[in-house]
Design brief:
2 copies of one chain form a homodimer.
Chain A: E1 5-10, H1 15-25, E2 30-33, E3 43-47, H2 51-56, E4 62-65, H3 71-74, E5 84-86, H4 92-108, H5 111-119, E6 136-139, H6 143-153, E7 159-163, E8 173-176, H7 177-186, E9 190-193, H8 207-212, E10 217-221, H9 230-238, E11 242-247, E12 267-269, H10 279-294
Parallel strand pairs in A: 1-2, 1-3, 3-4, 4-5, 6-7, 6-9, 7-8, 9-10, 10-11, 11-12
């Protein structure tokens, strides 16, 4: 891969670690930080790039997004026909499986309640629940959703999945499309959001859809904050239809001070940490894909701009 | 199964639910609560029975223990040759898998720390850890240990297992016997105790063995309180070699007020709830086994009194 040029930009300003990593993995290439007026490159590796970068970098063979979600990228004007490739796993799906299983188990087994009681010096007893009464619904059956569904199913919960187009996942009752959303929700008590953020999925966790869910459940959002209509979720929890929520993502991050999610007794919040991009795995994946593209081969994770993910 | 007589006794005094359940599942049998002087029965179903019951109930064909651990029973004088049968799963292994995975993930991913930070209004960042640095060691590879090992392995942690006699479990590096205990510990950072309690395993989580573990790990005890030398565990945590512990079982239960485990900042305690005996599953299993024994067939879960489990 001599003579290749790769340009890197991340809104997280972490180029001090990424550029040496990419350079080491692509010894024959030139890897440089994008700045206005930078030389034209063959490939771009980006996280939340500015419009100017896309406008200037004409002639890219492909653009790699260093995350699973490309919603920020889809807000920009992209050169027509430019292949946009997102990470299809790179160590994120196991993290998602961990985070979601932890939240599901913690809620189902009332481990938060037990720990709370014990902190008060109380050796308490709670009636065991039947897992058959706690079907878990996964919104989104991409690479991450499928891995999470299988991880949850391993603990013998009934698992439902919903996706835009029909899918089949072993051990998962699959629903698809707008027409089956209400049935999917009515069959689920714990709801996990792992959808891509698109105009169709924005605000999908709203009052109407929450009302379809079996009562007494738990909402886990590990996708994007904008999937949830915050006021609707708060109303469903405060009204008692939903028992609680575990939220890792928010419409504005960091979560603004004073937001009602902070310190809500039935809501657990974490700082967008459910699945972190692991640099070494991501770089290895990007380098493999650059090699495949240079040989004219197809690669996984190519974004369909029309559907938005 | 007409003419069979089944006698029930539990120190938990839950006969109001068990006896009707057993009676419904054994319609031709007579199911009664054991009291001093009760009629002789064919089978006994017990939890922590008094010595007097065993002394009086001569001629039992088998005795069923309504729990996985028979350590309380092994303290009693049992009639020679009486088959003692413990629950071999009955819905407990999935609960153990849940409880242990929750504790492993919570510690590895520092979710307790994140929740603590968020409760203080802090949107924090912690460097992701590599799961390769957190091998999980399972002490005990019985029905519960094997299920837990496989559940943990699903999250891509390296998993080690240790048992008294040699075992082979797919995806688990297996060690056995006293000679390999130190090597097992040295290869593990998170330690899960799922051993039966016997004279050989009492106090196995002691200063010597904790010192062999990789430093910065976490101890999860879901077996019996007497597996842990409390003072040694506290010293290992307070000295920094062990990062923390999740304890569900204690030498005295309920955990006595004033015990240093209460409110220790690095120890999470729960009230012996990691795997509860599920009545309906247990009754179904006992009834199947009574049927098999009546037909002269072998049943799983028979206790070897010499080894103590």
């Amino acid at each position: 891969m001599t003579s290749l040029r790769v340009v890197y930009y991340s809104a997280d300003q972490d180029e001090d670690r990424w550029i040496p990593g990419l350079q080491a993995a692509l010894p024959g290439a030139e890897v440089l930080l994008w700045e206005p007026g930078a030389s034209l490159a063959d490939y771009a590796v980006v996280w939340k790039p500015p419009q100017q970068m896309l406008d200037e970098q004409i002639g890219l063979k492909a653009l790699f997004n260093t995350g699973a979600g490309v919603d920020a990228l889809m807000q920009l004007r992209l050169p027509p026909g430019l292949p946009v490739i997102r990470l299809d796993d790179a160590g994120m799906s196991v993290q998602m499986a961990e985070y979601v299983c932890h939240a599901v188990i913690r809620h189902f087994r009332e481990l938060d309640g037990y720990e709370h009681d014990m902190a008060l010096g109380k050796w308490s007893f709670r009636k065991p629940r039947s897992r058959l009464d706690y079907p878990v619904g996964i919104l989104g059956l991409g690479v991450l959703g499928e891995r999470v569904a299988k991880a949850v199913a391993q603990f013998d919960f009934p698992v439902n999945g919903w996706s835009r187009s029909p899918k089949a996942v072993e051990g998962v009752q699959c629903f698809h499309g707008d027409a089956q959303l209400a049935d999917f929700l009515a069959a689920s008590r714990i709801l996990v959001c792992l959808l891509p953020l698109t105009p169709e999925t924005e605000g999908i966790v709203n009052a109407t859809n929450l009302a379809h869910l079996r009562s007494g459940g738990h909402i886990i959002n590990v996708a994007r904050g904008a999937h949830v209509v915050d006021a609707d979720l708060l109303a469903a929890i405060d009204g008692g239809h939903v028992a609680g929520a575990t939220l890792d993502v928010f419409r504005v991050e960091p979560l603004p001070q004073g937001h009602p999610y902070w310190n809500h007794p039935k809501i657990t919040v974490t700082p967008h940490t459910s699945a972190r991009t692991l640099r070494s795995e991501s770089i290895a994946q990007i380098v493999l894909k650059i090699g495949a593209l240079e040989r004219g081969e197809a690669v996984a994770g190519r974004v369909d701009a029309a559907r938005g993910y």
